[in-house]
Amino acid sequence: MAFSKFFKKFKGEKKEELVEENIANEVEETSDKEVSVGEVNSVDEAYEEETIEVEEEYIEEENAVEADEKEDDVNITEIDNVVEESIEEVVEEIEEEKPKKVGFFQKLKEGLTKTRDELISKVDDIFGNYVKIDDDLFDELEEALITSDIGVDTSLYLIDALKDKIKEKKIKEVSEVKGALKEVITEVLGEEKGSITPKKTPKVIFVIGVNGAGKTTSIGKISNKLKKQGYKTMMVAADTFRAAAIDQLEVWSKRAGVDIIKHQEGSDPAAVVFDGIQAAKARKVDVLIVDTAGRLHNKKNLMNELGKINKVMDREFPEAEKETLLVLDGTTGQNAISQAKTFNEICKIDGLVITKLDGSSKGGVIISVKHELGIPVKLIGVGEGIDDLQEFDAKEFAEAIF
Q1: Structure confidence by residue, pLDDT tens digits, 325-346
Q2: Can you tell me which residues bind GTP (predicted)?
């Protein structure tokens, strides 16, 4: 220890000073007289006693200092241990409180809770009341499917397909019918996996849908998704008819961190799209997302508007891949099918975005959309978060329901 070394050095120097001081005093006292041998011995003895006392005092002090230092070392070690334990406890608490990353299937399963409760609870009740497979069982299953927003046509098709599946597999027990129904629904949905990832760039995505379906929100979430995938994305606010549509889209552009091209409310949508194309070319944008009006009450005007926009796009941006997505509100059930049929008459729809499934028991509409329209479902909304618009996976959807 540094202090101990210093103290030993100090003790040695002090001892030498005492020896010199005692000798000087003795010399001074005996300088004028003759000193006898006894007196010299007496001085030596006194010197030795004094030296021993001084040494003992310093040894005691050094021991005390070393004891204090050892105690300090022990205290520091104890403090270090306490601090380490405290840090470990805090880290454990943080890890416990950290939100767990929810996988797609779990998120989908949670989002479809109401649909699952509505459909599967009815199906389970029916199977619990029957001991044999007969027409009454099929009639009740058909009613359960229809009232779960799967639709009449699709429900009738599923029951016929279920009867064929039972014959094919020679199923005799009611308990096995549920598994067969799951297989039939999975087959209707197919192996489809929705994706909006560009096959090539640049790409233009037209987004259409009635007001209130979640069109603006979907555009914001799609922009965020594509940006995270590494694509430079831009929005075009071509829904100039609806009040506040431009402002809402601008809020989403800031939230997603992408550029937006806009005009004043009431402007010509085709003119906005023209400016958007020029900006996209100048800024080397990968994906241009165009928000369009959704006025189903006047199909002729909407058809004319979309026709003008497509002409501008074909003339100014012929090299771009084009895709039209229709946004449907999942809470409207069979009404969403009617909207999809009407929009499909106005323009070719490449894919569907079905929103608000997490707050609805009508997720069965996806089965009827697939069966009756044959339009692929690209994205489904299973939450309100910016990352809760998920790419549709038919197999996982069927698993989540059952």
Answers
A1: 999 988 887 788 888 888 888 8
A2: 209-216, 291-295, 355-358
**Which pTM value belongs to this model?**
0.68
The reply to whether 304 sits in an annotated binding site is: no
For residue 291, say whether it is annotated as part of any ligand binding site. Answer: yes
Is 209 annotated to bind ligand? yes
Instruction: Report whether 210 belongs to an annotated binding site.
Output: yes
Q: Tell me which residue of 402, 370, 382 sits closest to 192, measured CA to CA.
A: 370
User: Which of the pair, 64 or 163, is modelled with greater confidence?
Assistant: 163
Whole-Å CA distances, 378 to 116, 123, 226, 362: 21, 28, 14, 18
Domain 203-394 in the same topology as domain 106-189:
no
Q: Which two tokens stand for residue 64?
A: 């005390």
CATH topology for 106-189? Four Helix Bundle (Hemerythrin (Met), subunit A) (1.20.120)
Tens digit of each residue's pLDDT (9 = 90 or more) over 3-18: 444 444 444 554 455 4
Answer whether 240's CB lies under 8 Å from 263's CB: yes
What SS3 class is residue 322?
A: strand
Of 402, 324, 330, residue with least CA distance to 366: 330
Give residue limits of the domains in the chain: 2-96, 106-189, 203-394
Is 215 annotated for ligand binding? yes
Q: Is 292 annotated as a binding residue?
A: yes
256 labelled binding-site residue: no
Instruction: State how far the Cα of 284 lies from the Cα of 303, in Å rounded to an integer.
Output: 30
Closest of 133, 146, 147, 140 to residue 177, by C-alpha: 133
Residue 38 labelled as part of a binding site: no
Distance CA 392, CA 378 (A): 5
pLDDT greater than 90 at residue 125: no
214 annotated binding-site participant:
yes
Say whether 194 counts as a known binding-site residue.
no
Q: What superfamily does domain 203-394 belong to in CATH?
A: P-loop containing nucleotide triphosphate hydrolases (3.40.50.300)
Residue 298 and residue 255: Cα distance in Å, rounded? 32
Question: Is 244 annotated for ligand binding?
Answer: no
d(Cα 182, Cα 398) in Å, to the nearest integer? 7
Q: Per the structure block, which two tokens stand in for 85?
A: 């334990």
Q: How far is it, in rounded angstroms, from Cα 149 to Cα 73?
A: 75
Decide if pLDDT at 87 tops 60: no
Q: Show the tokens assigned to 170.
A: 């020679």
* 160 closest CA partner among 152, 131, 400, 335: 152
Query: Is residue 212 annotated as involved in ligand binding?
Result: yes
